[in-house]
Amino acid sequence: KQEVTQIPAALSVPEGENLVLNCSFTDSAIYNLQWFRQDPGKGLTSLLLIQSSQREQTSGRLNASLDKSSGRSTLYIAASQPGDSATYLCAVRPFSGTYKYIFGTGTRLKVLA
Amino acid sequence: NAGVTQTPKFRILKIGQSMTLQCTQDMNHNYMYWYRQDPGMGLKLIYYSVGAGITDKGEVPNGYNVSRSTTEDFPLRLELAAPSQTSVYFCASNRQEMNTEAFFGQGTRLTVV
Questions:
Q1: 3 state DSSP class of A82
Q2: A4, B9, B37, B52: which one has the fewest Cβ atoms less than 10 Å from its Cβ?
Q3: Hey, is the C-beta of A46 within 8 angstroms of any chain B C-beta?
């Protein structure tokens, strides 16, 4: 059974710091992995989608990598800003059976001004 | 661009009452999903649909029902509300192709008292 884990559950960093969020999954048979951002009381916003054949994707200050063989993905945020404060969720879309995404429990990030 | 729209945003129900959570998308997506998010937990799939007239159970379907009469709409029905159904509910959609982003609604915060 596919399981997705995100560590740490919470993180506080000073503004300007570069940071890495981690996501691990137990089964490498996936179509893709997607990173989302969730602001308090809001829905999920897609940040980056990495297909299983890709190693990384970049959007602005964000870079996501995927190592399928080790079951890991990282989200790198460069020069963090207070506006980056949010919960970051990763989700994998497995080959098997259904069409659903399986989510991690998220990392709650606070960037201090 | 409306995207995925959920109504209502908030609702308080008494035990045993019923209600329908509405979800509509204007992107002509075939795939639609209902998830629930409990504090400190990842999103759990309740039901999903791969097209009009086709629905299937996810991980936690008990106590819920869905229908998909059109491509645009995917309502979630709670027949006999229970305190265990207190949660935040998210509707999501994506295109048929496997490596496409999922789009989420803003969520419905439901409290059963």
A1: helix
A2: B9
A3: yes
Contact assignment for A98 to B56 by CB distance below 8 Å: yes
Across the interface, whether the CB atoms of B50 and A43 are under 8 A apart is answered no
pLDDT by residue (tens digit) across B70-111?
Answer: 999 999 999 899 999 999 999 999 987 778 889 999 999 999
Q: Is the pLDDT of residue A57 over 80?
A: yes
Q: Which residue among B58, B101, B106 places its CB closest to the CB of A100?
A: B58
The residue of chain B with its CA nearest to that of A3 is: B42
Q: Is A58:A66 a contact under the CB 8 Å cutoff?
A: no
- Which phi and psi angles does A19 have, rounded to 5°? -145, 160
Residue B81 confidence (pLDDT): 96
* A89 contact B CB<8A: yes
